[in-house]
Amino acid sequence: MKKMYFLLLLTGSILAFNQHSIAQKEPLTSKTATKDKGYTVLNPGELIVIYKYAHLAHSPKETEKYAPTYFFTSNASDVLQPLTKSNLKKAFPNNHPFHDALDATIKEDKELINYDNFHKMYKVSWILKQHS
């Protein structure tokens, strides 16, 4: 009985600690997303600034497990958001021509990181530039 009580008490303490840690976590901003933390700015100075996060602490065998993830900021918000079509539309809620062009040009979220060699900028930035 004492063992069960101890396990329940320990489990409750761990859950309370985890909830407290999560609640205290501040949002990631362009100032806190540094190279030391694994973030790289791919296109500084554009309307949509894209960040690449590469997990630093893994072995070469686990490269596929830790694929890079992409985030963005806009002029409206300094907080990093996952780079998805849905989040881009939320970041520019009144720009319906941008929404339509995004839907017509980009079929899947993974295409959002495509680089336009002709215009020398990321495709999503070019689409926004054309519809601003």
TrEMBL record:
The signal peptide annotation in the UniProt record is: 1-18
Protein's UniProt name? Uncharacterized protein
Q: Does the keyword Signal apply?
A: yes
Species whose genome carries this gene: Chitinophaga oryziterrae
Which keywords does the record carry?
A: Signal
